[in-house]
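Whiteboard transcription, Tuesday session. T.W. wrote the C-alpha cells on the left side:
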C-alpha cells in the first residue's frame, strides 16, 4: 500500500466518514475500505476550496457602470451650479460698477469719459470703487467684450462714454430673458439691456 493510501485509510478509520454523495455519510465497513488499494474516487460535485468569496466580473461591471452614471450626473449638476454662480457674480460686479459710476457723476457732474473703450479693470475709478482692478469676469476670458465681434465669455469693457451717458459691455452664460438675441449685455445708466 502506498504512502498516500495509508494516510487516507488512517484518516477514514479515525473519522469513519467518506464522500459518497453530496454530503458525508458514515461507513458501515471502514476496515474493508482501508484494505482497498484502488484509487480514491469522489462521487458528486467537488467541494470548493473556499466558500463563495469575492465578486464576479458581471457584478463588478454593474457597480462600475452605476458609479460612472452617478458621477456623470453629479458633474452635470455641478457644472450648472457653477454657471449660475458665475452669472450671479457678474450681476454683482455690474451692480458695484453702476454704483461707482453714479458716485463719480455726483462728484464730477459727468461720467468718466477717459475710460471710453477701455477694459473696466484698467480704468482709474479706484476712488469710487476700491479694487476696480480686480473687477473682472469670473471665467477669466482673454478678449474684451465687443458687440460688433461678440464672443462669450468676454472681459467687461466700456463702450462710448459721454458726459451724461455710458455703456459697459459684458457677457453671461445664460440669458436673462429667453427672448434675448445673444448672451451679450450692456449696462447703462437706466439699467441692463441686451446687446442690439
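and on the right, the sequence the group agreed on:
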Amino acid at each position: 500500500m502506498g504512502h498516500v493510501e495509508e494516510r487516507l485509510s488512517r484518516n477514514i478509520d479515525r473519522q469513519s466518514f467518506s464522500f459518497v454523495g453530496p454530503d458525508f455519510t458514515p461507513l458501515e465497513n471502514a476496515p474493508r475500505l482501508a484494505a482497498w488499494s484502488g484509487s480514491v474516487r469522489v462521487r458528486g460535485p467537488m467541494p470548493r476550496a473556499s466558500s463563495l468569496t469575492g465578486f464576479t466580473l458581471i457584478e463588478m461591471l454593474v457597480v462600475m457602470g452605476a458609479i460612472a452614471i452617478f458621477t456623470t450626473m453629479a458633474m452635470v449638476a455641478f457644472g450648472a451650479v457653477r454657471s449660475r454662480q458665475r452669472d450671479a457674480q457678474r450681476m454683482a460686479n455690474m451692480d458695484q460698477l453702476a454704483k461707482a459710476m453714479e458716485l463719480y457723476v455726483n462728484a464730477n457732474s459727468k461720467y468718466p469719459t477717459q475710460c471710453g473703450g477701455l477694459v473696466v479693470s484698467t480704468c482709474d475709478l479706484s476712488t469710487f470703487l476700491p479694487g476696480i482692478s480686480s473687477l473682472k469676469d469670473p471665467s477669466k476670458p482673454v478678449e474684451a467684450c465687443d458687440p460688433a465681434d461678440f464672443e462669450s465669455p468676454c472681459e467687461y469693457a466700456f463702450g462710448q462714454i459721454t458726459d451724461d451717458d455710458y455703456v459697459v459691455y459684458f457677457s453671461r452664460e445664460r440669458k436673462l430673458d429667453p427672448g434675448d438675441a445673444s448672451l451679450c449685455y450692456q449696462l447703462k445708466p437706466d439699467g441692463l439691456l441686451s446687446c442690439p
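Someone added at the bottom: The first strand starts at residue 17 and ends at 19.
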